[in-house]
Amino acid sequence: MTVRIPPRSGKGFRLNKGEILKVTDPQGEQVSDMVAFNAADTKEYISSGRSIDYASKMFLSTGDILYSNRSNPMFEIISDDVKRHDFTLTPCSREMFRKLYGETNPPPGCQGNLEMALQPYGIAPDQVPIAFNIFMHVAVNGETGEIEVRPPLSKAGDSIKLRAEMDMIVALTACSAGQSNNHTYKPIDFELLPEGAADG
Amino acid sequence: MTVRIPPRSGKGFRLNKGEILKVTDPQGEQVSDMVAFNAADTKEYISSGRSIDYASKMFLSTGDILYSNRSNPMFEIISDDVKRHDFTLTPCSREMFRKLYGETNPPPGCQGNLEMALQPYGIAPDQVPIAFNIFMHVAVNGETGEIEVRPPLSKAGDSIKLRAEMDMIVALTACSAGQSNNHTYKPIDFELLPEGAADG
Q1: Which residue ranges does the record assign to the DUF1989 domain (chains A, B) (predicted)?
Q2: Residue B102 forms contact with A (CB below 8 Å)
């Protein structure tokens, strides 16, 4: 069953070990920030720093593992139509909209939407880590270190599938930041598929 | 007063708002992983994801701000002899030495040394975030995303000065990872200078 995340919002859910999370960009050029926590102990969380270190690369795709802060595998990426995601930046937030966009009355952003989605699971705002920013296209200048947020490479219907390597609480957003999604605030779809549905 | 951190170890200390932390590489080509927490509420911690986002660059140097997960300034870099540090990777750890170096009896690494340095302040192992890895030279291929840990660009006596923007608990290491320091495990020196000592 496909669940639709409306524009500029988020959803939290439980994902069991072996299940496959399929995240689809239904209209193209939209980003979904994903965070994850060990369901049995939410102090264990998805860690960009461990994942990038163990993969020795910043851009993760099919075959790569997303690790926790305790160095345990949380997800394996088992298929990926887009092959470009960001794992460097914290979710967009009221403070980000003020600082980078100069907005005086900013929306809660992915940070606020993740906080609301995680609150029922007892996960506090300070626990929201750097997200795996699905479909987010951040260009990196390897010489200067400058980064630039560009429109996602995702086309309508493109998806990524991640197999859960532990029981987790996961939250996803349909991103609120204009720079991330080419100034078109769109929904994100996701499905939980049973183990073995990798080719489904 | 200069404090020396012996090779492959770490130290924790309180740093008050306005004080200047000077970190020196006394022998050259050594890395110091730095983490920081709000002294009044250690759930607020240094955040690479916020800092990189607000600076729009991965390599931070003089004039750049290191932000917390709550988007508050923690440090301003006020001088920097080396101009190349990493803010992408979690501290080296037993698990990293096993996974990347194939070591069967690994040392605690910067992760373990930071945990020990922070324990007296009531900061738990799971709270150790991505560090500001002073003098660490991580080459980034902007096309492929591949990263490569190279010897630091620091020469003997090179230093960085950071002004504290809040009262903090800080921990520093003399790094334990051969790849980070050209396989020479050396000490790191630091000093706490009073406000206004920026040119000292």
Answers
A1: 4-169
A2: no
Mapping DSSP to helix (H, G, I), strand (E, B) and coil, where does residue B158 land?
strand
Cβ atoms within 10 Å of B51's Cβ, excluding its own: 25
Number of domains in chain A: 1
In this predicted structure, the answer to whether residue B113 has a pLDDT above a threshold of 60 is yes
Interface residue B105 vs chain A (CB under 8 A): no
Residue A78 covered by a domain:
yes
Q: What is the pLDDT of residues B43-59, one digit of tens each?
A: 999 999 999 999 999 99
**Residue A90 distance to chain B (closest CA, Å):** 5
**Number of CB pairs, chain A paired with chain B, less than 8 A apart:** 114
pLDDT in tens, A152-166: 999 999 999 999 999
Q: Which of B132, B161, B116, B111 is nearest to B36 (CA)?
A: B132
Measure CB to CB from residue B57 to each of A58, A69, A144 and give the nearest one.
A144
Examine residue B200 and state whether it is found in any structural domain, yes or no. no
ipTM: 0.95
Residue A157 Cα distances to A26, A40, A151, A178, B20, angstroms = 5, 33, 16, 20, 52
Say whether pLDDT at A190 is over 60.
Answer: yes
Burial of A107 (0-12, 13-18, 19+ CB in 10 A): middle
CA distance A95 to A101: 10
Report the DSSP pairing between strands A73-80 and A132-134. unpaired
Q: Is residue B44 part of a domain?
A: yes
Chain B CB contacts of A53 under 8 Å are 89-90, 96, 100
Residue A137, min C-alpha distance to chain B (Å): 12
In a domain, B198, yes or no: no
- CB-based burial label for B89 (10 Å; 0-12, 13-18, 19+): buried
Residues of chain A in contact with residue B180, where contact means CB-CB under 8 angstroms, are: none
Q: Is A143 left (phi over 0), alpha (psi -120 to 50) or beta?
A: alpha
Residue A107's domain comprises 3-193
Residues 138-157 of B with CB under 8 A from A: 139-148
| Helices B94-101 & B109-118 angle (0-180, nearest 10) | 180
